[in-house]
Amino acid sequence: MPITHTLAKLAGSCALASVLVAGLLFPLAGGFGFVSNRAADAVDNVSAELVEGTVPAVSTMVDATGAPIAWLYEQRRFEVPSDKISNNMKLAIISIEDRRFIEHDGVDWQGTMRAFLTNTTSGEVQQGASTLNQQYVKNFQLLVVAKTDAERRAAIETTPARKIREIRMALTLDRELTKEEILTRYLNLVPFGNSSYGIQDAAQTYFGVDAADLNVPQAAMLAGMVQSSSKLNPYTNTEGVLARRNTVLDTMIQNIPARADEFRKAKTEPLGVLPEPKGLPRGCIAANDRGFFCDYALQYLANAGISREQINKGGYLIKTTLDPAIQDSVKRSLSEAANPNLDDIAQVMSVIAPGADSHPLVAMSSSRNYGLNRDANETVQPQPYSMVGDGAGSVFKIFTTAAAMEKGMGINAQLDVPGRFDAKGLGNGGARGCPPATYCVENAGKYKSPMSVTEALATSPNTAFVKLIQAVGVTPTVDMAVRLGMRSFTEPGSSGHGNQSLADMVKEQNLGSFTLGPVAINPLELSNVAATLASGGRWCPPTPIKEVTDRYGKPVPLTQQACEQVVEPGLANTLANAMSKDDTSGTAAGAAAATGWHWPLAGKTGTTESHRSSAFFGFTNALAGAAYVYGDSPTPGEICSYPLRNCGSGDLFGGNEPARTWFNAIKPVVDRFPAPVLPPLDDKYVRGSNQAQVPDVSGMGQGEATAALVGAGFQVQAVNGAGPLPKGNVMSSAPNGSAIPGSVITIYISDGTQRAAPTPGPPVPGAPAPAPAVPPGLQLPPWWPR
Q1: 3-class DSSP state for residue 95?
Q2: What is the pTM for the complete model shown?
Q3: What's the Cα-to-Cα distance from 60 to each of 77, 206, 217, 317, rounded to whole Å?
Q4: pLDDT tens track for 120-131
Q5: Parallel, antiparallel, or unpaired: how do β-strands 317-320 and 545-549 relate?
């Protein structure tokens, strides 16, 4: 190389060194003022953040016992204090990266000048001359401050302006922090490859030990990898990593001669890394059957004020309400009832603990496994907590009943149960064979009439509840469903017709079919309806979060919806009692017997008319939830039971798989809670309001009966039929006992064509009184006169 060229390079290096000194000492001097001003601005913008030193860290989500559910992060890093880092690691990193670390003020001026001269005269970068302070600054800007690719490129650009910024911030750092603080922050920040950041995670990733327990060869290997964590990968470049580790040990022999023999011996040892990196799985996808719960918890936190980005960087401890025993029982029951490999049918179930102040979500699962493997029929769709399926069927009859009770009907009411009922004034959704503005419905089987509210809820005749919603009104019934917990019905677009909500659509069209539950549901919300009734009518949002603490252990405030008293406690408690026969004499009795369920509960089955979805809804005083089966393919069809499958003509009912799933899920854990008991009855809702009392008009003439009923505030409809009473006399009325004030009471008028039963003669003196008649097949209770 010509001597003039060499001199020119040397002159250039001296000029560059002058730039550095001038930029640092005289930021506004000469022609370098603009560059220095930019550097000063950058320093001002970053200094506070740099000194504070908050870096991305792993957030951990745990269940109610403290067991991890998921690790959530952008950079897999667990910060540790200085006393939790091995002295071997501290010595190794200082020895290889910055041997004058203890002496300098953040910048090694001697090394900086030498590096500029060497790099300039050689024509390539041979020396970096960066101190640990400077490396920390560069890595902090790259890994923490930079948000875009352009900012990340600027953080590592080889320009005088960047070097000036780096040096100035390194000096600031040295003034503000102790050497121990700077070293600890550096080791907690830098990357170590294989998605590992910081010394604690690196120690676990490669050796399965804590940072405090790193020995000499382990520390030397990790210190050497900082030079290039991507190239120096012990699993792909064993020889390169071994050579670099030994280079680190050579510097330790030179810089710490008192331990030279120990370091020479370490050079003879193998790397000793684990067979494969130990890195923790990332996100809800690794939470297995807890994945649906994990996703819901993150959505809940986003609504409560902590975004996913904050969680992925914040190092939070997220304590959830998930009870692992209940969760495992629910998942096991779901898997038994519905094969996870079914590619077109899913069953979901959530369990909530009732309470006046909160509704903790203790379990959430699906028969479908949580994951990304479509070939194995896995899914990450929010099945348990989004609008899915064709509806919960007759479960919705509880909303009609609750609305009727709120209007004054008591559960002692005797409901009329015709075989067919044409509800005039209700929308029919365009049903064929039904007159306009009329909703026509028939029962699937034969039912006695009249029937008590409790019997009707247990055996579920459709006509009785269509008559009831006609009397109550569609709007109050929909509003009751929303109040009790079906809040998604009010969301814009939930109807599937433009921006209209489902609630508004049903009200606008006055759809009496709402009582038969033919619309998609959010299964979690249905479970929360059960929790609301089990909480004495107290609605609270289903919460998966017990507490969130930040990286320093300080509780993080959350914005959460307040609980609401949506119906009177007496109404909720009395309705719970009215729902208490489904598992003993109702549609779920077979499932209860088959599973050995024998505790008191309030329950209701439901099935859509086309058998494309069904549900069982139930609660005790301690646990509430709903099991829901539906077709989750783009083109769901009718579903058959035992085993669940798509078929030509469905026979799925809520009393089949849904009820069995519920009983099998709750039975193994029921003893962990207070013994199930039904809540106290409230006479106001047993008898009904004073205005709801239906006069007993049996035996009266039609005119007299009509006058009595109209006088009590009811409307009257007369139906003639064969009967034993004199022509024109009332044989019975329905509903009776109590009814919606102002509703229609049907009176059945005898035409006198049937022969009356013979009148018994006078009792024989001294003869025992005849026992009351007993319906065939009814077992006599102990108190029955014999």
Answers
A1: helix
A2: 0.87
A3: 11, 21, 31, 5
A4: 555 444 445 589
A5: antiparallel
